[in-house]
Amino acid sequence: MILESIIITIYTIALLLILIYALAQLNLLFNYLSAKRKEDSSVKFDLTNPDEIPFVTIQLPVYNEMYVMERLLDNIALIEYPKDKLEIQVLDDSTDETVETTKAQIEKLRATGLDIKHLTRTNRVGFKAGALKEGLEIAKGEFIAIFDSDFLPKKDWLKQTVPYFKNPKIGVVQTRWGHINRNYSILTKIQAFALDAHFTLEQVGRNSKGHFINFNGTAGLWRKACILDAGNWEGDTLTEDLDLSYRAQLKNWEFKYLEDVETPAELPVVISAARSQQFRWNKGGAENFKKMKWRVLKNKTISTKTKIHGLLHLLNSTMFFNILLVAILSIPMLYIKNEYAHLKGYFIVMSFFVISTLIFFICYWVMYKNIYGGGIKNFVNYIGMFFVFFSIAMGFSLHNTIAVIEGHIGKKSEFVRTPKFNISKIKDSWKTNQYIKKTVSFNVIFEGLLMAYFAFGMYSAFVVGDQGGDFGLFPFHLMLFLGFGFVFVKSIFSKA
Question: pTM of the predicted model, to two decimals?
Answer without folding.
Answer: 0.93
